[in-house]
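To: structure subgroup
Subject: Chain for Friday's discussion

All,

I'm putting the inputs and outputs inline so they're searchable in the archive.
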Amino acid sequence: MKLTVLLGAFLLSAPAWTQVQPPKKKLLAIGEVKGFEHDSVSHGLATLEKLGRQTGLWDTYIRTDNELLSKQKLAAGNAKNLDFFDAVIFYTTGDLGLTDQQKKDLISFVHDDGKGFLGIHSATDTYYNWPEYGEMIGGYFNEHPWGQVHCTIRTEDKSFPATAHFPASFPFYDEMYQFKEPYSRDKLRVLMSIDPASVDLSNPRVHRTDQDFAVTWVHNYGKGRVFYSSLGHRDEVWDLPDIQKMWIEGVKWVMGMTEGNVTPHPKPAK
């Protein structure tokens, strides 16, 4: 009895580093590019690695190849496959050369295993010829009519963990996208969008007659969770505390550490 009491007192008084900590989550960050080269891929993924360390919530494995996007046993003895990870994040462009089996494994990782997937900026400019990927990420890039532009972003959901800290609307400068099918507000919960009054709608490359320019969205994909934001083209965006918090909360949500409403809702009235 005395030994038990003494041991309990020791554990309570022990420094934090001696306490048993829950295992950290594992994030596989893919920065492979087979199309337009975004200079901010390095800084963006490095920022996510830093945020995982600072919060103590996840370890990030940054890769510029796609070898680990597989559930199959890999040749190298220490190689991890998808079964090791809790979420995958893409800052990618183009057709990454995944085999048919790798494609099945990635879709199954999210849809069937209930794991997480996040997309950064040009992740929607990836795999136009793979319909299941389009459905998973939620939409495809359809030009950026204004390039890098000063605009106003509307926070459509002030309750979701990743956007609760943003004001109702705020000025922003980045390369802003528009999206095409399978993008649909019937299937996604849009968290942030461009205020159409803040951009030039007469630009001939504006294709959305509904003036619906989503920026950030979430949805469930089978048993899994998907978070996407088009923000992050510019290095400076990754240094903004509000954007870093958005990604922290996005990672936490897809990994099941927090909850958030994913019910679709209509475009806000003007």
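Points worth raising on Friday:
The first helix runs from residue 2 to 13.
DSSP finds five helices and eleven strands in the chain.

D.
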